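Review box. Two proteins, two foldings.
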Amino acid sequence: MDCFVCFAASITPQPRLFVPFLFDVFYFHLNPKLSNIPKKVKVVEVGPRDGLQNERVLVPTEAKISFIERLAASGLPVVEATSFVSPKWVPQMRDHTEVMQSIQKRPGTSYPVLTPNLKGYQQAVNAGAQEVAIFGAASEGFSQKNINCSIDESIDRFQDIMAAAAVDGVRVRGYVSCVVACPYDGPTDPQVVARVSQKLFDMGCYEISLGDTIGVGTPATMSKMIDAVAEKVDIENLAVHCHDTFGQGLANILAALQMGVSVVDSSVSGLGGCPYAQGATGNVATEDVVYMLHGLGIETGIDLDKLVDAGEYIGVTLNRPTASRAGAAILATRIKQRKNIVKQNYEKKMQQTQQEVSHKREQEDAKSDSA
């Protein structure tokens, strides 16, 4: 890597985390080789939809609603709420209407939903959705396994949604799956990714999210792919959606940032996977992404502590520890701080008790002397 961010391990963290020296932040942004790094990044939280859809145990509706509201309270600008797909195919999303109608929506936060067809779109709009997402694949094999049709046929199916959205004033985001490789077809040709992305953009999608669905990408393969797509769709209209199967998620995101991408999809606690891509682990954890972005001096508008709270909440709900390294570190620090507070309170109480006992003995001795 052309640069590094040095963390001050010798200073007291305020409030809980080590912070980068200002010099390092300036160095990062002033380095001409990194001039495309954005000053502000929009983080799209996909945990409630992409994160939970692969969970075998059904999450209670009330827990989903609380999860979404906690995420929004952290300052996330976009929280993908649910998917209006048939419960036959994705049982976890069976309560999409109730979830969408029950969320206490936060001003300034967008709550898009996934709509695979016109019926799903109509249900979503009736439930109050103001933004929807559609999805295509850059792999014929994945397209056939996922929605039982070819790439071109899948995109054609979305024409009705795009027409209806234009009339309704609903924004549409486009996902492209398997942008690096496919579990069925192997490596993906970047030119195919570019072609699919351009089709979705030309149809009216305001933003195209490029998904490394099985998490095999590296900074090199991601950069090559983004280069190809950026020739067809402006970089300002692109987002990256990285799964972390091989631990390359953050590195791939950094590579995308260096190319000027300013929108990043992620999932709190690293939740996720794909029902149609065996072996794919969760998305890159939002806590890790935000920690890195803040360390680079990039504005997100997100409160990391509150984000960790949301991750802790869903972890308790799923009876599972967080997969976020930053989240786990912050939670461990909190536990240590709580233990120290308990210890300090105990020692203070013991000291007060000893002082009270000593004072009482002094009073008794004084009485005995006077007698």
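Next protein.
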Amino acid sequence: MGRPGFTPRGDRGGRGGRGGFGGGGGRGGFGGGGRGAPRGTPAARKIALEHNINLAEVTGTGRDGRILKEDIVKHVESLKKAKEEVPKPLDQTPIIEKPVPEPIKSLPTPVRIPPVIEKDTIEPIKGFRKAMVKTMTASLKIPEFGYCDEVDLTELVEVRKLLKDSAAVKDKGIRLSYMPFFIKAASLALRHYPLLNSSLDEPCENITYKAAHNIGLAMDTPNGLVVPNVKHVQALSVLDVAQELSRLIDAGLRGALKQSDLTGGTFTLSNIGSFGGTYAKPVILAPEVAIGALGTIQALPRFDNAGNVVKAHIMQVSWSADHRVIDGATMARFSNLWKSYLEKPSLLLLELK
């Protein structure tokens, strides 16, 4: 028994109420009461409180087993590491076994067919082709230049639509294409620029201005490329040109063109548009000095005079000219005049005689 009014040290429960950092029982599991409770430094107790750690679970490394700050830090790290090492639950997704493919049956051995080795074939160059070889060989000696432009044929499309259904055309059984208009417009422009309807002699000493406008049309036939020409276009109407052109095309397909149909040309047009072409670099047919290649007619967007986008029928034209006698400005002026007749077909009426 102690002295009256003296409480033994181990029984002082008042201090134990501060949680298990010292004495008897009190706040939440940080230590039990009595002398057996683990002791810790103030820093250690603070960290333990922050991490909700029971000091009884920590092994102290200080004097007399005192729990140091380092012991709490080490204990916290060990708890984190233990959480990370907890194995994840196994995937419970059922495993679907893929069907095993059946073994491929052996294919029959292919029969080897020996390649057929054909012999080279020699074909003599003759007829129209021989004449074309001679003409093209001479043409490639000409120092030529090119000039390109586009033509708006919107009005001409409407005019042709009206004329081809007229009695004057149907009664004669004529197929009125655009080519008669192109040829007649070229003849009218040649009247103003006769230099393009001329020829140059081999010594390059004389230029001959041709009186007749014998305008040729490059034509694809079973016998190869031929260039028959419509004679005296300057004296013919558009309908006359269409009629003569129909005769030449029919004769060319039948291989019945005459020598007179193929000679005497003074100016040439090539309709590459019939094959879907747009631009070309046509080769001059010597002794002529100019040629034009006409592209396909396309419906394209264009701006009108008011700035509105409208549907227009556009054709590209590519000219080649002999630079020994024709300069670029002359070619451009001729092209602009020819173009004006086609863009405004009413102008053709003013020039016809």
